Amino acid sequence: MTTPTHQPQLPDLPIRRVEEMGLKELERIRLILRGGSVIEWRRMHFKTWDEVDRFLRLLQIDPTRKHDDLWVRTVLSDAVEYLRKTFNYRVADVVANPNMIHDLFLLASGEIDRKYRKIACIVLKTMHVIQHIEARDLLFKIAVPDAEMARLVSERVSGVMEEARQKDLPIVEFSDSIKTRESTITKLIAKKDSTAAAIYDRTRFRIIVKERDDIIPTLYFLTQRLLPFNFIVPSQTENTLIRFKDLVKQYPNFKKYARQLHLDLDYEEREAAARLGNTFSGSTYRVLNFVADVPIRLDAFLPPPEQDDRERQGRITLATCEFQIADEKQALQNEKGENSHERYKQRQRDVVLKRLSSGLVVPRKRPTAD
Predict the structure, then answer these.
(1) Whole-number Å distance between alpha carbons of 275 and 271
(2) Mind listing the pLDDT tens digit for each residue in 210-235?
(3) Which among 93, 74, 97, 29 has a CA at the least distance from the CA of 261?
(4) Following DSSP, what letter does each residue of 123-136 receive, concatenated?
């Protein structure tokens, strides 16, 4: 008999309009728009115990369950041991062994005792990395089939998008797709960089909203109900749709926080100069494509916590997915002329054929004798 999956309950929150957002929301949105990493951050932005509790539940961790709390403290202990052994860090006991795990996040935000903010941030960053390692190891050890993982993540994402519609977010279109084996082979051969072995979009979700201004509220809703902001996969974002600097200038509530950002306002422009972008897309193709890890509980594939005798007892893995977002007008433009999917695939196939035949002489057919 399988163990039922325990889904931590998230409290209901209203849709946040852009005009109501502050520094916390701006930093999280920027992380998606540029494909950044929380490893670059200097502080967290949690203000209350309830905020932290919500975030833990978004990570699929239920702090009220003894096993979940013990697991988080195991990851915390690993992080502290690593920092002490590798860098001889003096990690204070208030950070290494907090009364409640929520306190660690509030310390990293400077809301409890500012003198521990930096070391708490460093500990959380290290825990973030360890959590990824544990999630991958779990998936390998219990060997969940790819099709089953795709089903689990599709169910989660579809449920959240249905909730978005019920809350009147203007979702015009939502669809999911799984990359075929032939498409995966083509993409791997077409990629020349060092990440060629990594295919992040085997499971892809396409979200089309009514207007361009609807994209930011939709993104933030996803970070509240589905995607923990720290699970954006770095350097895997293609954003030709929303310029962050323009976003900050457009909204006075964002503009006043410009000097408090982790990175300066011109960072994206310097970064873009070093990127080639997607060379297969048409010249007027505009989209926000980003990759994120969706946390998935695997209780159904594991014994009950009280009977679990594994040395490492994590129960949460990560499903890496691609999200593609655009407004309705731009989505229609993206399907015309050189921007069409068929033209995109043909340009990709042309590159693959050229790479495969590079340096090879294809013998001509011998003429037949008269």
Answers:
(1) 7
(2) 999 999 999 999 999 999 999 999 99
(3) 29
(4) HHHHHHHHHHHHHH
